[in-house]
Automatic annotation (TrEMBL):
<dbReference type="Pfam" id="PF13460">
    <property type="entry name" value="NAD_binding_10"/>
</dbReference>
<dbReference type="InterPro" id="IPR051164">
    <property type="entry name" value="NmrA-like_oxidored"/>
</dbReference>
<protein>
    <submittedName>
        <fullName>SDR family oxidoreductase</fullName>
    </submittedName>
</protein>
<dbReference type="InterPro" id="IPR036291">
    <property type="entry name" value="NAD(P)-bd_dom_sf"/>
</dbReference>
<keyword id="KW-0521">NADP</keyword>
<feature type="domain" description="NAD(P)-binding">
    <location>
        <begin position="42"/>
        <end position="131"/>
    </location>
</feature>
<dbReference type="InterPro" id="IPR016040">
    <property type="entry name" value="NAD(P)-bd_dom"/>
</dbReference>
Amino acid sequence: MRIVVVGGTGHIGSRLVTALQDCNQDVVVASPSLGVNTITREGLDEALNGAQVVVDVTNSPTFQDDVALEFFLASGRNLLAAEEAAGVQHHVALSVVGTDRLPESGYFRAKMAQENLIRASHLPYTILRSTPFFEFLTGIVESAADGNVLRLSPAPIQPIAADDVVAALREVAMGRPQNREVEIVGPDRFGLNQIAEQILTANEDGRMVVADPRALYFGAVLHDDTLVPGDHPRFAPTRFEDWLRRYVADALPVAF
């Protein structure tokens, strides 16, 4: 089976390419650095030639509202049109748990626009909605910094290891289209402020975390149900405490 990974040189895409190749799949890596651009359509038709499955793990170059919306609309329209012309049988897209519950956020409005394009197309599809990756939590936490204080919502979140997302994407890509959204989440639920405290402790960072229900998350106020899954999500195996322990160990200097 020929599978095209669009965004195949990124954090998730590069890992997915390796995981699919390990399963003896015929994988095409598509990204602007390799001459395949979903905005300009450069190299797109050639990359999709003979493909049965396309996995879209691209992301906007910034979280700025207008830029994100323009990116996801232009990229989505061009990619879906090229897939229809190429006879692709399954479109897989990586999205975010809570996308439909964050209309105050310009970035998540853009992600919702991407999902709507997929649902309106004539292609069989599966949208895999994931919670935030462990690996990206530090960036989320740092965005809340105000001097020596970090104000974060106590709203619950179930973050997930990037490798678990990759495993789920591989399974979805090699399976049948489900024509719906599928949610995958980590096994543990924390308040976002609690996650921040654990990360700061692991980094021996003395700044103070303040639980603030009005703190913004990508421009939106969170509620108790915003970032948690609906009924019957898939649970990933990696626990946050185990991942954090490895993260700390990897950061330690090598002993000679």
